[in-house]
Design brief:
261 residues; alpha/beta; Rossmann fold; globular
Amino acid sequence: MSEFALQLQSVRKSFGKSEIIRGAELAVRPGERVAIIGPNGAGKSTLFNLISGRFAPSSGEIRLFGERIDGRKPYEINRRGLSRSFQVSNLFNRLSVFENIRCALLWSMGCRYAFWKFLAGLDEVNDRAEELLEMIKLDKRRDVPAMNLSYAEGRQLEIGITIAGGAKVILLDEPTAGMSKSETKRFIQLIREVTEGRTLLTVEHDMGVVFGLADKIAVLVYGEVIAFDTPDAVRANARVQEAYLGSVLAEAQAAEAAAAS
C-alpha cells in the first residue's frame, strides 16, 4: 500500500498548442484535507478533470493508493475509491432525496440491473440510504423531489451522493459557491463530519473556507503547483503572495474596510 492516497507526478495537459497543466506535482497522504487555490485560468478545474478521468493527461502519472489511474474512464476510477462533485449541481431532479441517495448506493453495495427485483425490497441498501440522509442532515427532507430543494440543500444532497459509494478520496469543486455566510459556515462543518477519515481535495475561492477547512493548501499558478504546505506556511510564502494570495487578501481587506465605512 502506498503512503500516499493520491499522487501526481510530472502531470501535463495540453489542448492543441495550449499547455494548461505544466508538470504538476502533488502527493496527498490518507486523511489529509487539501484545498487547491489559484487565480482564474490557473488550471484548477482541468486538474480535477485529469484526476477524476474526464481528461487523460498528455504525459505524467496519477496514482490512487499507488495504482495508476491516469487514462482510465471515470467510472473505473470511481470504483477504485475516488469520487467527485461538480461546480454545477447534477441531480435526478424528479426523484426524491431518498431515491437520489439510493441510486448512488446501488453499485457499491453489489446491486446490478435485474428487472425482476424491486428496490423497495433491498433492505440493506434502504437502511444505508436512511443513515446517509441523517449524516447529511436531510432526513426531514427525505421524500422531497430534488428539484424542490434550496440551493444549499441541493449541495448537501450532492455531498451525500459523492460519499455514498464509499470513496476514500473525495474531490469537491467549489462546494460553497453561491452560499450565504451562514450557509457556508454550516456546510464547512458538514464537510468536516462526512469526510472524517477520508482524503479530501477541494477547489475553493473563499479564503475563509480554505483556511478554516484545509490541513494543507496547494497553490496552482499557470498550471504548476508553486507551493504545497500548511495554511500558515502558505500564507507566509513570498512567492505565493506575489503570484496570488497577496492580491486576494488585499481585496478582502478592502472589501471589509468598505463595509465598515
